[in-house]
Design goal:
There is one protein chain. The chain is of the alpha/beta class and about 350 residues long. The protein has 3 domains: about 100 residues, Nucleotidyltransferase, domain 5, CATH 3.30.420; about 90 residues; about 110 residues, no CATH class. It contains 12 helices and 9 strands. Helix 6 crosses helix 8. The N and C termini lie far apart (about 60 Å).
């Protein structure tokens, strides 16, 4: 009977350091291979027995996951932020690969989810749209920063309008600065055009996914937010409960408490010490957090009535918005799982 083997891979741009352990933790192999598909596949094919592989989430992780998953019994892309044990002892490529293999053997690695083939194109289009959106915003900020640095007020968005551009350039007396800003204006025009094309491509691709149509029935969920959610979540069955989605989206309240129990009259009882709140969890998906928080800021029904009811009960406005964002996340998860469109009559907005 062939025995299980556990492989840890420390992946770099040019080379990958590999360590293989057996079930007892003994080193079976240590080697270095090029970070290329063919030599990595050849190495795995030369090993006998069920092979369990792990490596950290890096730039090459998605590509490497697709390369190796057909040749191994199990592949886990692990979260480096949770692998605190890697910081212990010596630090080096071979040591890290061996530690990863040992963590895989003992079941202490925390996996990072990698999606299905069906959503891969939408994921890439969403990333492209987000990148162009960020670059556009940065260019706009740079333009305003130059004017602000010379004491010239730029209220509103007039400075970005093509019809007013010459007037704004004439307000800069330094020739070098004027030319620099003109370059930024040209960059802004190019980015805006690319951003519109990326948005259109993303929306067209998102129509191929039934989940986008379901999510668009939720108030404040247009084509962009729906596409972002589907590309990020991939499948609602990743989350068994709404609480797991809240934590993943950065909507979970973090609490700290120590000395939770005490002994009174010979019995262990729960302490009445108040629990300390530390805000929302920071280890989250920023994209989903922006989607749900952004939807909760919309002043449409039934959101307006729900927020008003929460505030009348004494809840602070920021906590009311957080509660609404969590409600929207729970609604999105529910209708996606059940395959039904949004129906406010089925929801109790007073709780």
């Amino acid at each position: 009977m062939k025995r299980d083997q556990y492989m840890g891979m420390d992946v770099h741009q040019a080379t990958t350091v590999v360590a293989v352990l057996d079930a007892e933790g003994r080193v079976v192999m240590e080697t270095i291979v090029p970070t290329q598909a063919a030599p990595i596949i050849r190495l795995m094919q030369n090993l006998s027995g069920p092979l369990h592989v792990t490596f950290e989430e890096t730039t090459q992780a998605a590509w490497l996951y697709e390369v190796v998953r057909a040749y191994v019994a199990e592949v886990v892309v692990c979260d480096p932020r949770r692998n605190k044990l890697l910081a212990e002892g010596s630090k080096g490529d071979k040591a890290d690969a061996k530690k990863l293999a040992d963590l895989m053997r003992t079941g202490l690695v925390r996996s990072v989810y990698h999606g299905h083939e069906q959503t891969r194109k939408l994921k890439e289009l969403v990333r492209g749209y987000e990148t162009l959106s960020i670059d556009t915003q940065r260019t706009m900020v740079r333009i305003k920063a130059i004017y602000r640095g010379r004491g010239i007020a730029t209220p509103g968005r007039g400075v970005y309008q093509a019809k007013q551009r010459q007037q704004w350039l004439e307000r800069l007396s330094e020739p070098g600065v004027r030319e620099r800003v003109s370059w930024l204006f040209e960059q802004l025009d190019q980015l805006r055009g690319l951003r519109r094309r990326a948005k259109q491509a993303m929306v067209v691709e998102s129509r191929q996914h039934r989940a986008v149509g379901l999510l668009r029935s939720i108030p404040q969920f247009g084509p962009i937010r729906s596409a972002l959610v589907v590309a990020t979540v991939d499948t609602p069955h990743r989350f068994r409960t709404r609480h797991q989605l809240w934590s993943y989206s950065g909507l979970a309240v973090v609490t700290h408490m120590s000395s939770e129990y005490e002994i009174k009259e010979g019995r262990v009882v729960r302490s009445r010490k108040p629990m300390a709140t530390r805000g929302l969890n920071r280890n989250c998906n920023r994209r989903l957090k922006e989607v749900f928080i952004g939807a909760a800021t919309g002043q449409t029904e039934p959101y307006r009535t729900y927020l008003g009811a929460l505030q009348q009960r004494g809840m602070r406005p920021e906590m009311a918005r957080l509660t609404l964002a969590r409600k929207i996340a729970a609604i999105a998860l529910r209708i996606w799982k059940e395959g039904e469109t949004f129906d406010p009559k089925k929801l109790n907005w007073t709780t």
